[in-house]
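Record 1 of the preview.
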Amino acid sequence: MPHGRPEVGVGPWEGPWPEGPQWDPVLLAEGDRRNVVDRYRYWTLEAVRADLDTRRHDFHVAIENWQHDFNIGTVVRSANAFLAAEVHIVGNRRWNRRGAMVTDRYQHLRHHGSVPDLAADLHARGVALWGVDNLPGSLPLETAALPRRVCFLFGQEGPGLSEQAREACDATFSIAQFGSTRSINASAAAAIAMHTWVVQHADLAGEDAWRG
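->
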């Protein structure tokens, strides 16, 4: 059997064009090859974001960016998949967007110069700041009752949460592991934490949850 990348998306719209402000005339005419669910085929970027904003979840995700961590883009992509309220970049403003696969266009991104700045912003809005790292004294994430309004904070690949971050967090939590290495990739840990929130708080039976 032949192998190769299947064509993504759909071609030009066939038949009379639909009416409404959400439709993108360029996509209708040329086809929509974006990596979006069928719900948003031929929609403008602005319309997609507006619709996502009507049903975003209450959790946030933040990652420290002192060394231009390549994981940030992947964290953003997972945040889009699990529909995070916001993604917070702490430290350097510039970050590697390649791993985001353009999903950053659909997310609300905030920059903070320091972790105390992040904590102050979140606490003013009633959002708890939970650090996720395999640190001595960290509580098990698997058995924790997650607040509905929470922000998961992750450190750099390798060193993990900075000392400043550990001091600013309301608590720190660890992810159970069973293999030979002492840590897992930061973007993988972020996806696990976000999915843990989804399991506890999201409407998994509703039409907004899709699996393919």
